[in-house]
Design the sequence.
């Protein structure tokens, strides 16, 4: 018997073109689609490393997933794949804050999704009423938010004038296994990933966790597997998702970046069986860490009213649980390579 959606209607298998589907979010979405649905995934990315475990031709879903190695900036094949698909999910973006200052043009051309209010009265962000407030032009970090806001408006304009069916997802700090990279292992030695991978790298190397401007900024964190449940609900319930912008986050998992570091030290000490007293934090300025042009908001709290009403979705995983799962993965995946590197510093 075919699975039914929230309205009791059978779920029709779709051909889904996933742009940037080989990355952190895409790899988890592919796993979900292959193991729990009949949908077809047409994955477009510059690397298949994070989904190679799904591409083995002997697997039962082998005929439902295909990978196309492609740089979408200059490859005309993308249009053909999009036109042949029932649904397109765009996950391609430059999402590491360190790049916003050094690669603002790439950021503007590549990114999309939401903008970040910076005034205290706008800490609680509502999809349909919160205004978008940005920092000054010379604070290039805001190129990310501005670019995503422009694309939101383009999508909505296409909907208003030409009937484009769309759903926009605003992800609030989705974290979990396979997020970003560890510098010098599966990413550039001078690369700066997002906060969870930065802290993981410090922990794996026994280095102090660097707190930008003291780690005072507060953030909410959502386990990526909870987030993927929300995305699948959107795919399988188009009548409830079309035309909506959804915040997808976990307001209950709000901590300061300093508190996050302290929690990660506690969890990693248990995972790696090392004394927590051997792990520490270090305050650094944003300019020293990111360079000139960095700026950010103090808090971002997603209002969850619309997604709860439309799809009945709520996050389930606590911060302690998701950090335990993620740091176990980080330790198992990277600790051997880093130990080898540290024991042979000249290589």
Sequence:
């Amino acid at each position: 018997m075919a699975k039914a959606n929230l309205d009791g209607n059978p779920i029709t298998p779709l051909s889904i073109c996933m742009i940037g589907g080989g990355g952190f979010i895409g790899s988890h979405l592919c796993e979900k689609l292959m193991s729990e649905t009949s949908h077809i995934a047409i994955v477009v990315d510059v690397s298949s490393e994070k989904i190679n475990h799904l591409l083995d031709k002997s697997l039962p879903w082998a005929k439902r997933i295909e990978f196309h190695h492609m740089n979408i900036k200059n490859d005309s094949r993308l249009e053909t794949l999009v036109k042949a698909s029932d649904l397109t999910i765009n996950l391609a973006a430059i999402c590491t804050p360190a790049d916003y200052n050094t690669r603002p043009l790439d950021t503007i051309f590549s990114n999309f999704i939401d903008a970040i209010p910076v005034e205290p009265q706008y800490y609680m962000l509502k999809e349909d009423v919160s205004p978008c407030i940005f920092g000054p032009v010379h604070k290039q970090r805001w190129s990310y938010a501005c670019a995503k806001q422009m694309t939101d408006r383009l999508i909505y304009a296409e909907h208003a004038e030409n009937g484009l069916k769309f759903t926009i997802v605003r992800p609030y700090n989705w974290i979990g296994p396979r997020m970003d990279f560890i510098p010098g292992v599966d990413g550039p030695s001078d690369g700066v990933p997002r906060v969870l991978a930065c802290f993981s790298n410090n922990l794996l190397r026994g280095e102090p966790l660097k707190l930008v401007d003291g780690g005072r900024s507060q953030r909410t964190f959502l386990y990526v597997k909870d987030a993927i449940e929300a995305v699948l609900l959107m795919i399988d319930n188009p009548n409830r998702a079309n035309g909506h912008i959804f915040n997808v986050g976990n307001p209950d998992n709000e901590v300061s970046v300093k508190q996050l570091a302290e929690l990660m030290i506690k969890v990693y000490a248990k995972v790696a069986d090392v004394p927590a007293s051997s792990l520490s934090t270090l305050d650094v300025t944003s300019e020293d860490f990111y360079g000139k042009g960095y700026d950010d908001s103090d808090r971002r709290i997603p209002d969850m009213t619309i997604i709860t009403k439309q799809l009945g979705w709520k996050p389930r995983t606590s911060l302690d649980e998701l950090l335990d799962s993620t740091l176990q993965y980080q330790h198992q995946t990277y600790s051997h390579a880093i130990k080898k590197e540290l024991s042979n510093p000249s290589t």
